[in-house]
Amino acid sequence: SGDSGTADTGDTGDVIVNVTDLSEGDLIITELMVNPSDCTSDPYGEYIEIYNNTDFTVDLDGLKISDNVSTSSFKETAIVEAGGYAVGTRDGYANCYGIEADFEFSQGLNNGDGDSVTIWHANGDLDVVDYQGWTIPNGASLELSVAAYDADANDDESNWCEGVGNLQDSDDLGSAGGDNDCGAVGDTGDTGDTGDTGDTGDT
């Protein structure tokens, strides 16, 4: 009877979970390009980045996106690995940054008075980012700090930064589909200057 061990279940990365089985915070919004500059018009540059915060591969079929007015139609759903990113671009527009979209959404992102973005499925909300009243950069994405990959922490504007890396050959800045620069370890390196206090040993 010793062969009844459960060791084989350890390969959670091989398990594909449907998005409708996920709970709040399992998928989070980590980057928004709201106000592109180096594109013909906003729809050609707008994108939403989603991070898989679970230990499982997730099938996005059934995921929905809403702003504070309406729900987008959602097309070209993808499979997202644990700890991986999915990037959505506007439906019907060739993305000016050359992003190969994992999904497409129809509703525009309001860069005037701000907007909100909700990702959800038939059984409940997964994440909401309400950026109404926030400062929206021109020609740069809003990136969530890597230290704040949490459905509550990403409600706070102070946990977001402007993108700093060029998007392909564009002058616009962001990191669509990759780890965000905001909050990366290297960004905090300037605090190392406090090491000068070591000279007190001369006393």
From the structure above, extract its key features.
0% helix, globular, disordered N terminus, 7-stranded mixed β-sheet, 4-stranded antiparallel β-sheet, mainly beta, 14 strands, 203 residues
Report on the structure:
With 203 residues, the protein is mainly β. It is 0% helix and 28% strand. It is built from no helices and 14 strands. It has strands at 16-18, 27-33, 47-52, 57-59, 64-66, 71-72, 74-75, 79-80, 85-90, 103-105, 116-121, 124-130, 142-144, 160-162. It has a seven-stranded mixed β-sheet with strand order 7-10-9-3-2-13-14, with no helix packed on it. It has a four-stranded antiparallel β-sheet with strand order 6-5-11-12, with no helix packed on it. The model is unreliable at 1-10 and 187-203 (pLDDT under 50).
Strand order of the largest sheet: 7-10-9-3-2-13-14
Give the CA-based shape.
globular
State the distance separating the first and last CA atoms: 70 Å
Q: Give the H and E element order.
A: EEEEEEEEEEEEEE
How many DSSP helices? 0
Helical proportion, percent range: under 10%
* Number of distinct beta strands: 14
β-sheet strand percentage = 25-35%
Q: What can be said about the biggest beta sheet?
A: 7 strands, mixed
Unreliably modeled segments: 1-10, 187-203
